[in-house]
Structure formats: C-alpha cells, structure tokens
C-alpha cells in the first residue's frame, strides 16, 4: 500500500527538495510558428528545473467545429516539439564543454547515494514528456529529467468540461497526477468562464467548484491512490482563470498606466475569493509584481481598447486573468512573473517551486 507522504511510514525515508517550473499561457487559438523559441519562457539559460509543467488555453480557435473535436494531435505535437527543443539542448544544465572536461563526472540530482552520471556531449541529460493531454483548447504537458522518470508512477488524467451546456470542453479543466517517489502531485490546468460584467465572477466560481467536485483519477483496488484533487500531497492550479478587477474600466486603465498594482490587486476578484475562501478555501498565491496579462493587441504592448492606429477597439479592461495558485504543505514558491511573448492577447505567467518529496532511504 502506498503511504501518504505526510504521514508516518514504516519505511525509512528522507525529505528531498525538487524544483518545479510551472507556466500557463492562453495562446488565443494561434498555432505556434515553427521558429518560436521557448527558451525565454522556460528560462533555460538559468538552472534547469527537475520537472516542467506547461498549461495552455485556446491552442485551437474556440469555434463550433473545434468544440466537438476534443483532441488535435498535430497541434499538440507542435507545442511538445518546441518544448523539447528548448529543454533538450546539447549543454548539460548549462555546463560548458571545458567545465565538463575538467570534471570526470557530473552528478544529476537526485541520484542514489554514491552514483553519478557520466557526462556525454552526444547524450547529455534529457527531459522526457511523462504525460500530455488536450481537451479542445486546454492542453497540459509535463516533462521530467530522464533520471527521474523511473521514480515517477501512477500517472493519470481527468478532464472536466464546463462550457456549452455545462458539458463541452471549450471551458473546463485537464488535470494530471503522478507520484514522484512517495509523494503525490496534482496539476489542474483550467480555462474558466469569461466575461467582464458584474456578476460574471459567479460563473467562474461555479466552474471551479465543478472542477473540484467532478475531477476523478483512476483507482487501483490494491493500492491507495488519491482520486480527488485535494487528496494529493502537492497541488498546483494554473490557467486562464479569467478573474477581473472590481473597478470601473477607466479607473482600472488609469491605475495600470501608473503601475499601481497594489490598489488594483486589492480589487482583484481572485484575491477576494482567496481572502474569503468561498471557492478556493485554503489556496495560496504568491505576491503579484507584474503588469496585468490581459488583454493586449496581438503583436503589441498596447492593451486592447487603447489607441491602435487611430481606432478604439472593443472595451476590455486589463486584468490578471492568467494565474498560478497552490494548495497544501510542502511547496515553497521562489518566483512568480510573466513572459513577454506577443503571440496572442495574453502574456504567459510562470512560477518556480521547491517541492518536498519523500524519498526512500537505502536500508543499512
């Protein structure tokens, strides 16, 4: 039986910290260009993480045709190919060839005590996709260092449609779970109800409630496996949550222009839910110190509705629609910022976590 990682276990174990990179991006139904460089978003020039979790929304246009076709293998392969290219460079965790020659071996964290992985230029440390799933426009893909893959088990997916008729996948979630050593992880990638009118936040809350109640992972009768989101040890929710700001549009735009994030965030709908705990009771979010991620003119740094070629677009007040929040113990966030890709009307967000993982100790 698998033991809960935060409870007392008969097996000897130790706690190790692993680095998680988590990102969310609404790409506005635009297919990625073949030359799109994901290195900036994945921040691969700095130290590489142990696990990368990337969630996308609107990887296909949300029209009547796409809603009835839940999966598009071609578009998923395009995104995974770009991610693989960015992660699987010939350099090894940014170690130069000269540095590699000076060291006989390079350790890959974490390995069993006393073991090491020989550095090989032609076969440097790789990242493998351990799970990947699409539902209409929502797509989540998880990548792990190759030495970790043997210690990852019980991968499972659960999709919840909350869109048209409360069922279709134009809105909803794709959740994935897995075990790393003796600790369970759950990642929820969602696209909640849109709309900037007063009261629209209630539908977003209803979507989130549906996702929490309807998400179910596969079960094994011979082992304890958590089936619900909140039963997992480490839980992270990412996506276009679509929460807006409780202020008039003109006031919001003025405060955005002045960079008054603290005033805006005091009136942020999701922050209000986190404070009041009506739907996200017990969830946490790191401080936001970046500009609202929505809504931009594509290929522009101008928010939608601002002057663009002398024309005023349809009203869409700026908002922090794209978010990353977490639940439970054993997670410490060290970074929360946004990327500056101009592909769509959203900017991606990303976060880095240190996650505590229960790792069996060798018996002596």
Automatic annotation (TrEMBL):
Protein name per Swiss-Prot or TrEMBL: Type IV inositol polyphosphate 5-phosphatase 9-like isoform X1
Domain Inositol polyphosphate-related phosphatase: from-to ranges: 16-361
Classification via PANTHER family: TYPE IV INOSITOL POLYPHOSPHATE 5-PHOSPHATASE 9, TYPE IV INOSITOL POLYPHOSPHATE 5-PHOSPHATASE 9-LIKE
SMART domains in the cross-refs: IPPc
Superkingdom classification of source: Eukaryota
Residues of the signal peptide: none
Pfam families noted in UniProt: Exo_endo_phos2
UniProt KW keywords: Hydrolase
Organism: Solanum pennellii
């Amino acid at each position: 039986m698998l033991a809960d990682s935060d409870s007392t276990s008969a097996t000897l174990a130790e706690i190790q910290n692993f680095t998680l990179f988590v990102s969310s991006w609404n790409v506005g139904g635009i297919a990625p260009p073949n030359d799109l460089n994901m290195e900036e978003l994945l921040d691969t020039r700095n130290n590489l993480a142990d696990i990368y979790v990337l969630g996308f929304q609107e990887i296909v246009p949300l029209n009547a045709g796409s809603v009835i076709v839940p999966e598009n293998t071609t578009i998923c392969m395009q995104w995974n190919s770009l991610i693989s290219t960015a992660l699987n460079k010939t350099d090894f965790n940014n170690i130069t060839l000269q540095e590699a020659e000076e060291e006989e071996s390079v350790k890959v964290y974490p390995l069993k005590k006393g073991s090491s992985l020989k550095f090989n230029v032609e076969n440097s440390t790789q990242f493998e996709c351990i799970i990947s799933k699409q539902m209409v426009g929502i797509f989540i893909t998880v990548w792990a260092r190759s030495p970790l893959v043997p210690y990852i088990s019980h991968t499972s997916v659960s999709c919840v449609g909350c869109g048209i008729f409360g069922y279709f996948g134009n809105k909803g979630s794709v959740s994935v779970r897995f075990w790393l050593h003796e600790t369970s992880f759950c990642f929820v990638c969602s696209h909640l109800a849109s709309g900037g009118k007063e009261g629209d936040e209630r539908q977003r809350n209803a979507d989130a409630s549906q996702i929490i109640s309807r998400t179910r992972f596969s079960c094994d009768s011979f082992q304890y496996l958590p089936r619900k989101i909140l039963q997992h040890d480490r839980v992270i929710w990412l996506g276009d949550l679509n929460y807006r700001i409780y202020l008039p549009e003109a006031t919001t735009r003025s405060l955005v222009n002045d960079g008054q994030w603290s005033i805006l965030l005091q009136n942020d709908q999701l922050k209000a839910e986190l404070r009041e705990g009506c739907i996200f009771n017990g969830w946490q979010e790191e401080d936001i110190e970046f500009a609202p991620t929505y809504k931009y003119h594509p290929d522009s740094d101008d928010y939608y509705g601002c002057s663009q070629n002398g024309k005023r677009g349809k009203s869409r007040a700026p908002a922090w629609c794209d978010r990353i929040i977490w639940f439970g113990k054993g997670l410490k966030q060290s970074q929360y910022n946004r990327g500056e890709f101009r592909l769509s009307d959203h900017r991606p967000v990303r976060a880095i976590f240190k996650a505590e993982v229960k790792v069996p100790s060798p018996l002596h």
